[in-house]
Specification:
The protein is an alpha/beta fold and about 350 residues long. Among the domains are: about 80 residues, Rossmann fold (3-Layer(aba) Sandwich); about 130 residues, 2-Layer Sandwich (Nucleotidyltransferase, domain 5). The chain contains 14 helices and 15 strands. The strands form three sheets. The protein has a six-stranded mixed β-sheet with strand order 13-12-11-10-14-15, with helices on both faces. The longest helix is centred in the middle third of the chain and has 15 residues.
């Protein structure tokens, strides 16, 4: 890959980790500064847990962010007496419906109690990353690309259902071309992405699943199989996304929770139906997954898997590792997208 002419900070923010690549022009990508750190939702959840264990009230303030350990901790400690307040934007991290958030015992207010531990929300930890860079003499890039998994704002609908309704509409609008995975700028309903843009208006923001697929295509084995058909699976800490591709055409996609696929061993079943073109959105959704969108059958010449749960879900598939670093697959997808959308060097 011929990279951009300016440095770019690439953040792939998942449920368990935030994977970070500082791209620097003029040097091999393999020599770039890289970090794999706990995800913002994990860090926020740990802070809430510590305050709750000390019996202190907590106030959340900041933009909406992804859920995970933060929301689990809140639901664990509220019945135990945790006094929790949050600004309206921060409260949406718990659920899009503020009436529900209030019903579980959260006070929605802009004003924190005097003795509250104030915990900041948000997926982009700019201040913390800048401090880390300064300690190691790393110049902080002006250019930013971020991937998050956004379910979209859906106060009156299952966010799983809304996410795949949006995904299908996006793919159909783009004639199922792989370029339809890139939504720059993102739709207004994608509130996590919009929250990042509020902080960094010039950032490239996209979906983690799309970033992983485009990143896996940077693996030479996967790229060589692309025209003959390839199934790409991103087995993340929280979610697993599978896509069948022939050339530039997306044939089908499904997304499920990784823990379910690991515990039930059902990934191969879904992959078979995805390839046959018979997998339905309802089948995956009713199994507590996100859903499926299928265009047509596909007979891939290669099954490639990436992501931290790759060996648990598909140990016999080709283990894709672009530029020798599987954990940064999403970052490499962000980088390739930056080249297509923000430079003249696609």
């Amino acid at each position: 890959m011929r990279g951009p002419s300016e440095p770019v900070l690439l953040l792939d923010i998942g449920r368990g980790t935030q994977d970070i690549l500082f791209y620097t022009p003029g040097q091999p990508i393999e020599n770039s500064v890289k970090m794999v750190l706990p995800s913002p939702n994990v860090i926020t959840g740990q802070a809430i847990e510590q305050a709750a264990a000390e019996g202190r009230p907590v106030h959340l303030e900041g933009p909406v962010m992804g859920g995970g350990k933060n929301t689990r901790t809140i639901k664990q400690w509220l019945p135990k007496g945790l006094q929790l307040s949050a600004t309206p934007s921060a409260a949406l991290s718990i659920r899009d419906n503020l009436d529900y958030v209030k019903s579980i015992g959260v006070t929605v207010t802009e004003t924190p109690p005097e003795d509250a531990v104030i915990i900041h929300t948000g997926d982009y930890m700019k201040a913390e990353l800048q401090e880390t860079c300064s300690r190691f003499g790393i110049e902080y890039p002006k250019n930013l690309a971020v991937a998050v998994q956004d379910h979209g704002y859906s106060p009156d609908m299952s966010n799983r259902k809304f996410r795949f309704l949006h995904m299908r509409e996006t793919l159909e609008r783009g004639d199922w071309n792989i370029s339809s995975l890139i939504q720059d700028p993102p739709a207004p309903s994608m509130t996590r992405m919009q929250a990042i843009l509020d902080t960094a208006p010039d950032a490239l923001v996209m979906d983690t699943g799309a970033a992983a697929v485009l990143g896996a295509l940077q693996d030479p084995v996967v790229q060589n199989a692309r025209d003959r058909g390839v199934t790409i699976i991103n087995a993340g800490n929280g979610h697993t996304l599978a896509v069948t591709i022939e050339g530039d055409e997306i044939c089908g996609v499904f997304e499920h929770h990784s823990r379910v696929l690991i515990n039930n061993g059902t990934c191969q079943h879904y992959l078979t139906k995805l390839r046959n073109g018979t997998l339905t959105n309802e089948e995956v959704f009713d199994d507590h997954g996100h859903g499926a969108a299928v265009h047509r059958a596909c007979s891939p010449s290669l099954v490639a898997v990436t992501g931290p749960n790759r060996r648990k879900i598909l140990p016999d598939a080709y283990q894709a590792a672009p530029y020798g670093d599987m954990m940064l697959t999403g970052c490499f997808g962000l980088l390739s997208t930056w080249l297509k959308t923000r430079t003249n060097n696609p």
